[in-house]
Amino acid sequence: MNIISKIITPPTTKFSRTQLLLVGRSGGTRRFPILGNENFKSQQFNPQKSWAVMVSADIQWQVIRKTSSFLRRQRGIPKHFSRERFNIKGVNSIRFNGLVHRKGLDIQATSDGKGIVVVMKKRGKTFFPAKSGVSVTLKKNSRKSLKSVKNIARSCRIPHKGLAQKRASQLLRSLKPVASRRGRRVRKTEV
């Protein structure tokens, strides 16, 4: 689906509204208001902020799905992976993408390797990526950590609660020390 977009800014009056004009391949046009505030007399128009606030996840996905810098592709593997923050499964798809959705959850191992860090997406910090997450460190045993992850996912209203628990479980399992197997004893030969 090719979409040509153009931002139309009328002269600033009391009831003027900045609009996004989308032109499809077939020639049909559709206008979307960018700013919801009806009387923005003295407000400066910032296309980056307005675009991110207004544009739906579907349109954002159409823009970044093949050109994201987080994509990881390999020859012979048809599935493309993605390394962006808040992508709980690591797959390049609109369902799991962490850039286009308002809500998100990210689970990582701690730097010392003794627990996991759960990062939730903050709602008002869309334009400040470094400040966009609230992190909680869990260093309890695995059962308590998994229960905490489930409760955090429920409180954030994340649609992928099961995936969050699965990811946390995988990370906790990988942090356990590997039990070393004893090798075969070699008999000493007497000379």
From the structure above, extract its key features.
191 residues; alpha+beta; Enolase-like, domain 1; 3-stranded antiparallel beta sheet; 4 helices; 8 strands; 24% helix
Could you characterize the architecture of this molecule?
With 191 residues, this protein is an alpha+beta fold. It has 4 helices and 8 strands. A 3-stranded antiparallel β-sheet has the order 1-2-3, with helices on one face. A hairpin with a 5-residue loop joins strand 2 (19-23) and strand 3 (29-33). Helix 3 packs antiparallel against helix 4 (161-175). It holds the Pfam family Ribosomal_L28e. Residues 59-174 form the Ribosomal eL28/Mak16 domain. One of its GO terms (molecular function) is structural constituent of ribosome.
CATH class term of the domain at 102-175: Alpha Beta
* Rg (C-alpha, Å): 24 Å
Number of DSSP E strands? 8
State the end-to-end CA separation. Answer: 80 Å
SSE string, helix = H, strand = E? EEEHHEEEEEHH
Structural class: alpha+beta
Helix content: 10-25%
Spatial sequence of strands, sheet with the most strands: 1-2-3
Tally of helical segments: 4
Tell me, briefly, the overall form: extended
Task: Write down the CATH topology of the domain at 102-175.
Answer: Enolase-like, domain 1
Estimated share of beta-strand residues: 15-25%
- Spans with pLDDT under 50 lasting ≥5 residues? 12-16, 37-43
The CATH architecture of the domain at 102-175 can be given as: 2-Layer Sandwich
Largest sheet: 3 strands, antiparallel
Mean pLDDT: 78
